[in-house]
Design goal:
By secondary structure, the chain is of the alpha/beta class. It has a single domain, classed as 3-Layer(aba) Sandwich (Rossmann fold). 28% of the residues lie in helices and 27% in strands. It contains six helices and nine strands, in the order H-H-E-E-H-E-H-E-H-E-E-H-E-E-E. The strands form two sheets. Strands 5-4-3-6-7-8-9 form a seven-stranded mixed sheet, with helices on one face. A two-stranded antiparallel ribbon has the order 1-2. The longest helix is centred in the middle third of the chain and has 14 residues. Bound molecules: S-adenosyl-L-homocysteine. The site of S-adenosyl-L-homocysteine has 24 residues, from strand 2, helix 4 and strand 4.
């Protein structure tokens, strides 16, 4: 149920849904998703669906994780990426296979702790985790080539845009519950450009640490 063959079926499904970047598909193939969910849900880990991870949060649907990664990777190569919302750590693990260094922040300490254990188990060493409010970004480690937000604020946080290098991309869902849209913000010499991509459903970006 959690074999390489099962993972291969997921990769095939993502291709059918339009994921084209082979680097992303290879990262999905190389990353066991069942490690990122509760044992009781392991048999559903390779379905293309979001699953609960406790604390009212979810591990995002594989299609969305792959699509966001693909959209972030388009353009110049990324060395450093900041992820806001570590959650299960699955998206973080995919990014860690694709870029030099990943910084990931999470507001729920218990989720961060579990994610840290999973990265150790998988031998992923280029990930730095922080228990902090991702709406602030991580200025002491920025600016970043890419920022990926996996919870939805109402609008584009300028604090995050300011932590992008020129040419850097910020990918995030914005909007109220059930009416969110995926946006890619590219920092330019004079300011930034926005592209509105597709409709998505994410948990909200919240303030405060727990
Ligand atoms: N990438 C994760 C998505 C988890 S859901 C995965 O696929 O597993 C979004 C996560 O964002 C949750 O874990 C939630 O606690 C976290 N989050 C919400 N608001 C946040 C904030 N302001 N700072 C940091 N993390 C936040």
């Amino acid at each position: 149920m959690t074999s390489l063959r099962t993972r291969e079926r997921l990769v095939q499904r993502l291709r059918e849904e339009g994921i084209e970047d082979l680097r992303v598909l290879n990262a999905v193939r190389a990353t066991p998703r069942h490690i990122f969910v509760d044992e009781a849900l392991a048999s559903r880990a390779y379905e293309d669906t979001a699953l609960p991870i406790g604390h009212g949060q979810t591990i995002s649907q594989p299609y969305i994780v792959a699509r966001m990664t693909e959209l972030l990777m388009q353009g110049e190569a990324l060395d450093t990426v900041l992820e806001v919302g570590t959650g299960s750590g699955y998206q973080t693990a995919l990014l860690a296979r694709l870029v030099k260094r990943v910084y990931s922040v999470e507001r729920i300490a218990a989720l961060q702790k579990q994610a840290r254990r999973r990265f150790q188990e998988l031998g992923l060493r280029n990930i730095r985790l922080r228990h902090s409010d991702g709406g602030m970004g991580l200025p002491e480690y920025g600016p970043f080539d890419g920022i990926l937000v996996t919870a939805a604020p109402e609008g584009i946080p300028l604090t995050l845009v300011e932590q992008l290098k020129p040419g850097g991309r910020l990918l995030l869902p914005i909007g109220p519950r059930k009416e969110q849209v995926l946006v890619r913000v590219t920092r330019t010499a004079g300011g930034y450009e926005k592209e509105f991509l597709e409709r998505v459903v994410f948990v909200p970006l919240l303030g405060g640490l727990v």
